[in-house]
Amino acid sequence: MDEFANLEEWFAAKSKGFAPFAAWQNWVEAPEHRNLLEAYQFGVLAGDIRAHRNGDQMSVALAGLAHLVQTRCDAGGYEVYRGLCLNGPLAAGSVHEERSMNGWSLYPSIALRLAMAQGSANMIVLRQRLPPGSPSLYLDDWEHEVLRPPFVATVERAVVGLVRFLGVSLLVSVVDLHSEARYAGPR
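Predicted structure:
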């Protein structure tokens, strides 16, 4: 993975466009699968995901979506990014857990925009190179979103720096997650 000499240059360089996968609309034929993916994209499953992250059982719809994602490995071998605004920074050696279905992007700039939308403190861009065969489903060319199932990973390193982005200077942590994530599976 890249070294960070200058986070601002890194964000600019990593945000050049490419779309290596076919969006799900090009290959999903079963109406029930189309309905699940559309429900996720339009936010209908947001309450189910929130409840699952808070410890509830997966809803039937969310379990169906998780099963569909487990059958795909669209982003294996690619770096993916997730923007978060957390209560505190993540440190090397700590454990990061995604407790439900989670969306990642192929671009750090999109992940940073999503972190900015969540708040203004402790903006974090998670980065992980997915091993070949990792469960992942490419959703769309809008946010270049990759949907992933719940997993647990170790933080390899975290780098903090100022990034000038959309006319604003931001303090951002870029956090590398260990590439061999353990998938948590439905509960």
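Summary: The first helix runs from residue 7 to 14.
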